[in-house]
Amino acid sequence: MSIALRPWRTGDADAIVTACNDPLTQRYLPMLPNPYERSDALAFIGRGDTQRAVIDADTDQVLGAVGYAPKGEGVASVGYWVGPAHRGRRVATGALEMLGTELFKSGFQRLYLEIEADNLASQRVAVSAGYSREGIARGAGRRPDGSRFDMVVWARLADDPPGPSPRALPDLPGGRLTDGVVVLRPLLADDAHSTYNLRILPDVSGRSVVGTPLDPAVVARQCAESGSKWLAGVRSEMTIRRADGDLYLGEIALYYAEPVLKEAMIGYSLTPEARGHGYAARAARLVTDWGFDIGMARMIAGTATDNVASQRVLEAAGYTREALQRERLPGPDGARIDNVAFAKLRPAVT
Q1: Of 161, 164, 225, 170, the residue nearest 192 (C-alpha)
Q2: Phi and psi dihedrals of 57, rounded to 5?
Q3: Is there a contact between 49 and 70 (Cβ–Cβ < 8 Å)?
């Protein structure tokens, strides 16, 4: 399917009403009227030439919308929506690329998007259209009740190279890693219940470097926003599951803290029932090998001195003990804990 952009017409009102009453559209465009009426569509059509209909070039069917708002000399914010029947067909990506070409030719130098952190599909569109993640605009989003929320900022400059923006942490091949016994897949919003129940276990939360919130709503948000951190190149969080039956076993993550050094760290936790069966070592090997495949030169991990079980996991996964780092880890009540540092190097190419 080929797409095109054109001005809105009065006859497009019904298509706009249908798309803007879609629950997902309402979720991520919270300032839309709810319910969205035909009068709202007509008002939108009359907003001027900064808005475009995205259409099927062969049939003139409305697929979505794309538009912009000038934000100072040479700068514009851009936005889009796609009707529910047309998502997943690169409609938004193509529309963004076409609008960007038009705006850059007209003299704009910087275009930016603001996207809610859990709107992974929209952030993937930004990546595909050549936008780069810049950071978090705190409180940039607003709801009808006046409350505010953070937005992720993605931007593209007139002289950026064509094509998708580069990613430090690509998607898993085929969407998962497996050795036939365990399967690793990206952490999703649907994993919030299992993740919360794991993280609040005393022997998990007590060994967490970053701390574990006791509020299930916070954990649910962390799971929903995990994909955004992956796209940002910060960390790749995954659940560990049995290959036969998809039983939840725990979680594992790759933290890309040292891009310049090509060094990443892994961390993992298992449910009590899953321990002692070699699942953690299998997961650690899978993540470590994937890290080497995507360009890491060195993978590291660490444990408290008394966490003998985790040290055995790392040894089984091919890691070598390198050092004792005194008081490197935060402990309970402000105390500091020694860390046993492990590392594994990328195999030499022969």
Answers
A1: 225
A2: -65, -20
A3: no
Whether 275 and 215 have beta carbons less than 8 Å apart is answered as: no
How does DSSP assign 65-109, residue by residue?
EEEEEE-STTEEEEEEEE-GGGTTSSHHHHHHHHHHHHHHHTT--
Selection from 291, 53, 49, 283 nearest residue 170 by Cα: 291
Model confidence pTM above 0.90: yes
Domain 3-157 identical in fold to domain 173-345: yes
Domain 3-157 has CATH 3.40.630.30: yes
Note whether 310 and 261 are within 8 A (CB). no
Query: Of 133, 152, 158, 6, nearest to 75 (Cα)?
Result: 158
Q: Where are the domains of the chain?
A: 3-157, 173-345
**Which residues neighbour 59 within 8 Å (Cβ) at sequence distance 6 or greater?**
none
User: What 3-state DSSP class applies to 58?
Assistant: coil
Distance of CA 67 to the CA centre of its chain: 24
pLDDT (tens digit, 0 to 9) for every residue of the chain, 350 residues total?
Answer: 899 999 999 999 999 999 999 999 999 999 999 999 999 999 999 987 899 999 999 999 999 999 999 999 999 999 999 999 999 999 999 999 999 999 999 999 999 999 999 999 999 999 999 999 999 999 999 999 999 999 999 999 999 999 899 999 999 999 999 999 999 999 999 999 999 999 999 888 766 665 566 789 999 999 999 999 999 999 999 999 999 999 999 999 999 989 999 999 999 999 999 999 999 999 999 999 999 999 999 999 999 999 999 999 999 999 999 999 999 988 777 889 999 999 999 998 76
Architecture of domain 173-345: 3-Layer(aba) Sandwich (3.40)
Assign 262 to helix, strand or coil.
coil
**CA–CA separation, 30 and 152 (whole Å):** 16
Tokens of 202: 């005393």
